[in-house]
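job 3f2a | input accepted
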Amino acid sequence: MRVIKVLLVTILMVAFAMPVQAKIRSVGKGDKMNFDPSQIPNDLKGAFEIMKVKCIQCHTQERTVIAIQTGIAPVTGQPFDKQATKAYGIKMLRKPKSNMSREEVKQVVNLMNFLIDEAAKP
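job 3f2a | predicted structure (122 res):
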């Protein structure tokens, strides 16, 4: 049942939300999807490298790309905004498997907030 719910939410997000916020480009498809590195500013490239290595320990980058592009978290269907990035950052600090330091989480949250801002631009 949960798989059907996640699939339905994903289909709805793609059908309704993605065309509105396509400013953030991605490369690859499915499990290989990631943000286009050319759109990451130099001062955030370190955070991008952390995200590419640490975040995929538990989920694919596709989940993050879709959340940023659509403004909706793919699994929960909840809004994915700056408040959500902070909450997810705290959640990652508490997960032993994430193996992320407070500074790494802060850097990745800053990167996601930048990407959210970019996605909101007309």
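job 3f2a | Residues 2-120 form one domain.
job 3f2a | closed
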